[in-house]
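Lay summary. Proteins are chains of building blocks that fold into shapes, and those shapes determine what they do. In this project we predict the shape from the chain. Here is one chain we studied, written as its sequence of building blocks.
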Amino acid sequence: MVELEGDRIPWAVRARRLAVRAALLGLLAALVALALARMEYRWDWARAWSYRERFAIGLWTTLWLSAGSMLVGLTLGVGGCLLRLSRFDPLRFLGLLYVELVRGTPLLVQLLIAYYCVAPQIGIDRPPLVGMATLGLFAGAYVTEILRAGIESVERGQSEAALALGLSRWQTLRFVIAPQALRRVIPPLAGQFVSLVKDSSLLSIIAVAELTKVAELFAASSLKVFEAYLPLAALYLAITFPLSRLSAWLERRGAEQRR
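And here is the predicted shape, written in a compact code that computers can read:
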């Protein structure tokens, strides 16, 4: 049995691991600082600080667009999962077609098609709305497969026992299979949300004023690329790192519950 990190590990061992990680991070930070110090570049952090309100607005835009896109993705993912698990061949094929089309084409191409081809035809001229819908459509294909895999990972004998006890197929899915599958799919769903936050940076190409677009505007107006993109990277890391740790913690908890 593989011992999980943090599971019955002596405090001394954990402290030693933390010390090693802190030393490695310190060494990395020192190397980066040395490399930046040796560059012949005139830093102007005061000018970047004057852009702080726009960066804050871009951060908020990134957060609510990502959250909204994940809600759309969860909704489409549940529907797509039901289609993929359907016994009716046309519905099952429809779910498969959705997953393969979306996952088989780049998100950038989907954004361009949605913004320049689809949105004008249906009278939508709000880039954030188009971006949220496209991101949600993209995430929904991955959520579909995450949910399907979680449901199919539950032992077949449990559904057979529930059906033998008189439960319908829908009741079996709702009361027996889904609660167990939910514990298994939460970690990959959290990981998908992390990916979605990073994918939201592509919305800058359709003029959505999220973090990346703000950084691009600042770099273009000030010609200070490092002061524009280093804070951008730090802000994305500030969003995704806690989510990544949450995903890892949920994965450990799920593994403990399955023992």
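What the prediction tells us: The first helix runs from residue 11 to 37.
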